[in-house]
Design goal:
Elements: H1 10-17, H2 21-28, H3 36-49, H4 55-59, E1 67-72, H5 78-91, E2 97-102, H6 108-118, E3 123-127, H7 133-142, E4 146-149, E5 157-161, H8 163-176, E6 182-186, H9 192-207, E7 217-219, H10 230-243, E8 249-252, H11 255-267, E9 277-279, H12 287-290, E10 294-296, H13 299-315, E11 323-326, E12 329-331
Parallel strand pairs: 1-2, 1-3, 3-4, 4-5, 5-11, 6-7, 6-8, 8-9
Antiparallel strand pairs: 10-12
Amino acid sequence: MKSKNKKITIYQVAQRAGVAISTVSRVLNNSPNVSQKTKDKVNEAISALNFRPQVSARKLASREPQMLAIAVPSFTTPYFNEVLKGVKDEIKDLDLDIVIYNTGSKNPQEGIENFFFRGTADAVIAISIDISETVHQQVQASEVPMVLVGSSHPDYDYFELNNKKGGFLAGEHLIKQGYEKIGMVRPVLDTKSANLREIGFRDALKEFKMPVHDHLFISGESTKHAGYTEEAGYEAIYEYHRIGEFPDAIFCSNDTQAIGAYHALSKLGLRVPEDVALMGYDNIKFTKYLDLTTVDQKMYMVGVDATKRLAEIIKRPSDQKVQKTIDPILVIRDSTKRRGA
């Protein structure tokens, strides 16, 4: 009579068949390196115990990666969701389970250090997290394959995002639209990506010999998601209102800030773009319905490409690295339409 025990494991199968668990694993994976007599014993044990092999059981002895972890500062923001969609759509072709690990946006480096200390993944895609020396040593010691998205490191495959160029594109566009008094909404917490966007934005103002109004480079008060939120954008507009001076055009550090800013401007009776031009960064789905000019980082395809690359590393380990910098593109919509046009 077959056992109805749902907790039957590969160890029990190996014990009943009188073989090692590595042999059971090879039978489950249809390895040719097992005699027919041994296969028959293992299959008889599987049948008798009503064993239902899972992915982890099939891979246990082969040491193939079982668990892919996506380390990300937040999985609730649209920006990261686009990357995760790309990973999700590509991961279906890999024999891996997936777990999302939220490192937290205030100190993602510490979060990922704790993650590697626990050693809970066989492969990792790290999104928008700079790799510290501590994490580097942890990865080297564990030999876990890892691909970086939105950051770079000479020892890893990565898909870096050219934030500086994106900031320049934003500044150049607003200047060419005829705006002269230009402001920027920053995130409240210091981040590498935001700093590079601001550097590129300021470089555009300088290159076109435009005045830089430092007092119009502001942030909201909200620290949630490092200040890349609708609340932060909303608060920033009311800070302009408090000081009694609005720019002619505002560049927000990301689209969610711009959505909050758009709402605040409407509440104050200001029209976009007639009174204040507005643009964001990331080209998330909602921006199309607001006619919001933005900068597209191609995040979905970056997620797809990072997952493809990880699959290549798993199947064919190599010292050769794929290290790419992804250039963003400008997406022009009505929110920055030239005045009088």
